[in-house]
Specification:
There is one protein chain. The chain is α+β, with helices and mostly antiparallel strands and 271 residues long. It has 2 domains: 110 residues, Immunoglobulin-like (Sandwich); 136 residues, Immunoglobulins (Immunoglobulin-like), CATH 2.60.40.10. The chain has 4 helices and 19 strands. The strands form 5 sheets. A 6-stranded mixed beta sheet has the order 2-9-8-4-5-6, with no helix packed on it. The structure holds 2-acetamido-2-deoxy-beta-D-glucopyranose.
Amino acid sequence: MYFFFAVLSLLVRESLLLRIVRVSVPSYRVRGQQAQFDCDYELGGDRLYSVKWYRDNEEFYRYMPKYDPPQHAYKIDGVKVDLSKSNDRRVVLHQVTLKSSGLYRCEVSAEAPSFESAAGEGRMEVIYLPREGPRITGNEQENKKEDFLFLNCTSGRSYPAAVLSWDIDGEKVTDKNLLVEYPLIQHSHGLLSAALGLRVPTGRTMQVRCTARVAPAWREGSEAVVGNSQLADSKEAMLLVRSSGEASTLSIMLLTLSFLQLLSSLIQSET
Ligand SMILES: *[C@@H]1O[C@H](CO)[C@@H](O)[C@H](O)[C@H]1NC(C)=O
């Protein structure tokens, strides 16, 4: 009996208090898209005093029904509120930039006498997908020396950096002796390119492909998820290496490079 009343009074108390039902923040957005955050709450017996939104503890929007107009937006780096689409339960940002990434928090407060308040938050990351597919280039000096053909794959600018991989005749190259790693190349606006070299053993005809994959940082390392979702952007460049002897290497490079340009334009028109 006592238990029953305890539960009942708890329920009554709960239903009278302000509480956050759900705060939804998209985990990622592509640069240039708009972003919508929802803050769903129940006032219980309370009256709304304010709804405030913060990015990394910096306030950028508030809604206070007592004021006319009730909405107010503050300018902070990378956050531009679309007031016409925002209200007491929703905030919409104009085109997001890489600077819009961060932890977004909604805080709801009740009027006197309760002064109750509740908050919820979520992290959003803005990514930038490469405009061009990866480029494969050769290196004449390298290619004169050995009985290996040296190829270099460089990804288009993106954020975060693309993860590159090579495959020969459909099989991913994992042999570290065949791969040459390079540090990331920094561009303006925080964009990055990755480069990965490959030593192709000569002496037979093979199909060589370089794939660049860009996914939000929190998705890295979970390729299975990335592979079949729209979260990741994957582009590739392919070429046919028909190398037999040293003498022909140079002409093969020329051939493959023009072939590649054709291919990458084909790939681009597909996507
Ligand atoms: C491969 O490409 C990277 C990035 O463009 C460059 O730094 C590197 O020197 C290239 N390597 C060769 C051997 O051409």
